[in-house]
Amino acid sequence: MTKSNDKTNTKRTDVPSYLPADNLGPWQIYLEQIDRVTPYMGELAFWIEALKRPKRALIVDVPIELDNGTIAHFEGYRVQHNTSRGPGKGGVRFHQDVTLSEVMALAAWMTIKNAAVNVPFGGAKGGVRIDPKKLSAGELQRLTRRYTSEIGILIGPNKDIPAPDVNTDARIMAWMMDTYSVNTGSTTTGVVTGKPIVLGGSLGRVEATGRGVFVVAVEAIRRLGMSLENSRIAVQGFGNVGSVAAQLFSKAGARIVAVQDATGTIYNASGLDVEKLRLHVEKTGGVGGFKNAETMKPEEFWQADMDILVPAALENQITSANAAKIRAKLIVEGANGPTNPAADDILRDKGVTVVPDVVANAGGVTVSYFEWVQDFSSFFWTEDEINERLSRIMRDAFAAVWQMSVDRHVSLRTAAYIVACNRILEARSMRGLYP
Ligand SMILES: NC(=O)c1ccc[n+]([C@@H]2O[C@H](COP(=O)([O-])OP(=O)(O)OC[C@H]3O[C@@H](n4cnc5c(N)ncnc54)[C@H](O)[C@@H]3O)[C@@H](O)[C@H]2O)c1
Predict the structure, then answer these.
(1) Is 1 close to ligand 1, i.e. is its CB under 6 Å away?
(2) Strands of the 123-128 sheet, one edge to the other
(3) Would the pLDDT of 22 be above 90?
(4) Do 233 and 162 lie in a common domain?
(5) Has residue 8 got a pLDDT over 70?
(6) Which of 27, 35, 185, 276 maximizes the CB count within 10 A of its CB?
(7) What would the pLDDT profile of 84-111 be if each residue is shown by its tens digit?
(8) Which residues form a coiled coil (predicted)?
(9) Radius of gyration of the chain (CA)
(10) In terms of domains, do 231 and 342 share one?
(11) How much distance in Å is there from the Cα of 379 to the middle of ligand 1?
(12) Is 228 in the pocket of ligand 1 (CB under 6 A)?
């Protein structure tokens, strides 16, 4: 569930007492990223310590009555990492392995992502240590409602706006919105995003992340002097993000030559029929067994002949074990944290361009921002308007990061962190320190 690093847990002095100093987990990786960007911050480095601790971290007990009449207690969290640029924004994850360190790091990465694409939010994240597959629908609803009540002192449409993440969906967002509304005595659709359309959800939200991946890929292709037409693309993950991106690439004339998901790895040098593949996945649950394609061993996926690689499945997939074998000239990170830092260095030395997750997969949070704006004004936009505005924000974000990378001679990932941290710390310095 976490980003990982080949280098783990060297001792640091700037760590909070509430994490074990010898096992900082994902928070350690985040701190190292901030260390790496600090030399580029100029005078704003004066404020850098603000990014090294979360503004607020709430740990809650979530007791629920199980269907068998007994009571079970679960640990829940809501962390607001930074609110200098606006209210906290970030998903809620239900997973048995969620930890405070992970939620802190995910909240911090939301701060960076929101600033990298310049949407007016800070960063937040939440989680409950529970395997939701073990709960009945009734238990899941009771868990969601009690968790929402417990974190009710932190969330609100002007304070902190949750959204779906791993194992949470539009139905859970509807329960969260209802619980918050009942507790506050007024229907408040803008307290969460990723809601069903009938409750103030936004058109285009489901496709937004994959669409954003496609938009920034087109921008990168153009700047690298590559051509989209007929370029060979490999996609890991054919879920929400991967399948939408693959469809858009295919419609634009590129060839999706390899796809890997949890059920198999398939290859077709002349390009897979993405629409047929989508129907096959809808019917069977995965790409495995798709006709008109060769089957590959999972590890062969990385060395397939390709121009562009889109990791859109899990974190920590591109590592020092496979980075050297990758033939793509361009990697566009649909997933969160698919490339670990050691692999990043190998790819940089090989001259591979990596469009980092904080920009490439920010389409989802961008349309969440649109949902929040539409909820406030109770006036809803057409899907065309949404897609047009999404494309503009993604293109502008990519252009700023690309320019920073050229100006400072750094990777796009470092450039994205420089752009984001500049925006956050500038806001911080303008606001000043209270009292
Ligand atoms: N959905 C969003 O809006 C959004 C936004 C930002 C980032 N992301 C990130 O994008 C990634 C994918 O999210 P999603 O919403 O498409 O999820 P999803 O659950 O819809 O799809 C996940 C895909 O990954 C595949 N997969 C799982 N284990 C695998 C393995 N071991 N090897 C290869 N493939 C495997 C699954 O088979 C599936 O095709 C995640 O990292 C997520 O955090 C998603």
Answers:
(1) no
(2) 56-65, 71-82, 123-128, 88-94, 160-164
(3) no
(4) no
(5) no
(6) 27
(7) 999 999 999 999 999 999 999 999 999 9
(8) none
(9) 21
(10) yes
(11) 31
(12) no
| Total domains, the chain | 2
Q: What are the pLDDT digits (tens) for 55-77?
A: 999 999 999 999 999 999 999 99
Of all protein residues, the one whose alpha carbon is nearest to atom 42 of ligand 1 is 335
* Tens digit of each residue's pLDDT (9 = 90 or more) over 276-300: 999 999 999 999 999 999 999 999 9
Angstrom distance (rounded) from CA 33 to CA 38: 9
List the domain range (segments joined by +) for residue 82.
53-189
Q: Are residues 61 and 181 in the same domain?
A: yes
* CA gap 116, 114 in Å, rounded: 6
Active-site choice (125, 159, 291, 329): 125
The question of whether 125 is a catalytic residue gets the answer yes
Same-domain check for residues 64 and 168: yes
Tokens of 257: 């030559």
Residues 250 and 162 in one domain: no
* Mean pLDDT across 4-27: 74
Tell me, in angstroms, the distance from the centre of ligand 1 to residue 336's CA: 9
Give which of 225, 140, 224, 152 is closest to 192, Cα–Cα. 152
Q: Which amino acid is at 307?
A: D
Tens of pLDDT, residue by residue over 256-271, are 999 999 999 999 999 9
**How sure is the predictor about 10, in pLDDT bands with cuts at 50, 70 and 90?**
low
Q: Is 113 annotated as a binding residue?
A: yes
pLDDT band (50, 70, 90) for residue 331? very high
Res. 206: pLDDT tops 60? yes
Which residue among 341, 360, 379 closes a domain? 360
The pair of three-digit structure tokens given for residue 290, joined into one six-digit string: 């798709």
